[in-house]
Amino acid sequence: MTQYNKFKQASIFTASALALAVASASHAVDFEVGDTKASVYGYAKLDIIYDVDADLGNSIGHSNIKLDDEPSQDGHFNMHAYQSRIGFQTTTPVSGSDLVTRIEGDFYGSGGGSFRLRHAYGSWGGILAGQTWTNFYGFVAGTPTIDFTGPPGVGNQARQPQLRYTAGNFSASIEDPDTLGGSETTANGVVQTSADTAKSELPDVTARYTDTSGPFKYSASAVLRQLEFDAEEDPNATVNDDSAFGWGIALEAAMAVNEAVTLRAGVTHGDGLGGYMNVSPQTSPAYVADNGDLETLESTGGTIGASIKAGPGAINASYNVATVDLDDEGIDGTDTHETAYLNYIWSPAERVSYGIETSWASRETKDDRDGDAVRIQGMVMYSF
Hints:
The protein is mostly beta strands and 384 residues long. It has one domain (3-383): Porin. 4% of the residues lie in helices and 56% in strands. It has 2 helices and 22 strands. It has helices at residues 3-12, 17-22; strands spanning 29-33, 36-51, 76-80, 85-94, 97-109, 114-124, 127-133, 159-167, 170-175, 185-186, 197-199, 204-213, 216-230, 241-256, 261-271, 286-288, 294-296, 298-310, 313-324, 334-349, 352-365, 370-383. The strands form 2 sheets. Strands 2-4-5-6-7-8-9-12-13-14-15-18-19-20-21-22 form a 16-stranded antiparallel beta barrel. A 3-stranded mixed β-sheet has the order 10-16-17, with no helix packed on it. The model is unreliable at 1-25 and 187-195 (pLDDT under 50).
């Protein structure tokens, strides 16, 4: 296998690689019905978790980190199998192009324990319609983690309804504005009523270009948004309505230094970006200021990481940060999330994966209060 092809495979192994690897054709039960090739795939995964400090949840929740001046119950053990999933995919030749459908779910609904829809889409002739990964994230910069939350600061590794067109390495989409974008928040001290609600009049628009050049893979993404609230029907509302323009960009890169070492890095920045940045301290993209204007929130994030092949697996390490600029804004709260991961993930046999991970997570508020926590996590995963 050439170095080029090896890198193409390695670069796909990002923070969501645990999910993607077992969804591949090599880890599936395949059969044919007429002209249709069908696959049933998935895995059963056990997560074994010990939180040295506060209980961070089924996956790392930065909001659960206790600030240094807050009381905390330290030491929490947890086991769950919520990430286990099952999917069904079909491929049928139709008029010179493959018609592909996919439906997949896991058990992370309601924070864990309920079945939820992950993917439900069809694609044909370059047109994809349904729910799948947002087009804003290119799956290039993320270093593999066992923790399901994944690294802060990259584009959100989430799925939402969309209509996407792909031509070669370029893809563009219109996406549901409410899923990742979040709702406007109310400024401190401004009395608003329940009728002051976010309003979606236009879809979010994204564009992405991803390519590989020898040992180097890169991706550039952009999103444009219209943010709006409307309270005209409420006579008690202190303001009526306003709108603002939101935007965001994400740049990602990965380099195969040699057959054993892969380096990754990425940066995300925007104004009114909201939840399009993974693990953002403020998922709401804007707030209503004292003067009634809708003010957008500027956010910036980044990641740097490395993977080193060792024995039957790889050592993965990364540092990740997501920030929202609250200094000149009329709202308080958390403005910085950080996470560092160190893990070893290996496969002693085909369809079997083990892993052990140590992570450090922190959050900091606008008034410079902070706190951190350490998690130790193991996993056992059997795929089909």
